[in-house]
Specification:
Helices cover 29% and strands 17% of the residues. By secondary structure, the protein is α+β, with helices and mostly antiparallel strands. The protein has a five-stranded antiparallel beta sheet with strand order 2-1-17-16-15, sandwiched between helices. Strand 10 and strand 11 form a beta hairpin.
Length: 374
């Protein structure tokens, strides 16, 4: 009713049991917009960082193929060359401790007076323009090189906590080199589908009708269309919708199972996806005066932050720009999933944050747990 978002999904699990799983509202504000149901899929934005990239990194870490204390340059010299970025350690970048620029608006260089440059975009797919950015919008196959050139020209600041999307522009080529294929196909075949999770994936329009996917922004600045099934993040879109920092679409049910896999320390459905030692290494605080784990967000030292103040210091998760939150608490055995499209129709609507909706909902869960314990 306040206009913070048109609809949402909420899932709460306690001690491996789903105790609350409901859908609210509609896909958009217009009267004829479809109702949200439990199958509706949301663009989970930066929750991709844990539900895809960190999960994949943990699996490869357990196999001995992904070392947090190796440098970027030791894995992908073909990307970073002898630039200062080559010396950064993976642990530093995925704990947001490497001094990377928070983000780069790559798309701005591809526009002239607000219109797409014809050397960079075409309206139909071809051999030279194979990557789909949005409906009727395909980017040149080599433009990724320009994006990486921009990253490598950016300044590296002091080694202190500064949240940056750029970390995952490095983990993606590292992980894809290790696995020998796209993150998208590997995760779906080796982790999501073996867990029975069909509704968590990159590029959902390849599998589902757009009516099953909740729209995000009506993006007139860049893509000139309402985004539905195409990733909201412009940088991820320019990579064809598969990126380390964004691109996953999911419903609450599928995402909750990924968080349960983390709580289970890698074991689920009779399969082991990563070791307990890997779980401990990634979910712990990595650096003093930086609350982050390796890939995971964590509570501030005084409690709260991205999560509610009652979440334990052992808890971890991530939020997403589109209006999402996934959080797991091993001490209290709680999983909390909130999915919305607060960026619809405009990303400048910050009521979800300003009204503390996600953390207030989480607070109710912890209060209920406390009452149960009396």
């Amino acid at each position: 009713t306040a206009g913070a978002y048109p609809g949402c999904q909420l899932l709460v699990a306690v001690e491996d049991k789903v105790i609350w799983h409901k859908a609210y509202g509609k896909q958009g504000y217009e009267a004829k917009a479809p109702d949200i149901n439990l199958q509706s899929m949301y663009d989970i934005a930066s929750v991709t960082k844990i539900a895809a990239s960190t999960l994949l990194a943990m699996q490869q870490h357990t196999k001995g193929k992904f070392n947090l204390d190796q440098t970027i340059g030791s894995y992908i010299p073909e990307v970073v060359g002898n630039s200062p970025f080559a010396a950064l350690k993976i642990r530093e970048i995925i704990a947001h401790q490497a001094g990377l620029t928070p983000w780069i608006p790559f798309y701005k260089r591809t526009l002239t007076d607000g219109s797409w440059k014809s050397s960079i975009y075409q309206k139909a797919a071809s051999d030279d323009f194979p990557l789909e950015v949005a409906k009727g919008m395909y980017i040149h196959k080599n433009y990724k090189d320009s994006m990486y050139a921009q990253i490598l020209r950016s300044e590296i600041g002091p080694k202190k906590y500064v949240y940056s999307d750029l970390c995952y522009y490095f983990t993606q080529p590292i992980l894809e080199k290790i696995i020998g294929e796209s993150q998208a196909s590997y995760l779906r075949r080796n982790i999501y589908l073996p867990l029975g999770l069909g509704r968590i994936l990159y590029q959902p329009l390849k599998q589902f009708s757009d009516q099953q996917i909740v729209p995000t922004e009506d993006d007139q600045a860049y893509r000139k269309q309402l985004l539905r099934g195409y990733v909201h993040d412009p940088g991820a879109a320019m990579l064809g919708g598969v990126a380390g920092h964004a691109g996953i679409f999911s419903n609450a049910w599928s995402l909750a199972h990924i968080m349960q896999l983390f709580l289970n320390k890698g074991h689920m459905a009779g399969q082991r996806f990563f070791s307990e030692a890997t779980y401990t290494e990634f979910t712990k605080q990595q650096y003093p005066a930086n609350r982050r784990g390796a890939g995971f967000d964590r509570p501030t030292a005084s409690g709260g932050g991205t999560c509610d103040v009652l979440a334990s210091q052992a808890s971890f998760g991530h939020s997403g720009f589109t209006g999402t939150l996934a959080w797991a608490d091993p001490k209290n055995k709680v999983i909390f999933i909130f999915l919305s499209n607060r960026v619809h129709p405009n990303q400048d609507n910050w009521k979800l944050r300003d009204l503390n909706i996600r953390t207030d909902l989480q607070h109710v869960v912890y209060e209920a747990l406390a009452k149960r314990g009396r």
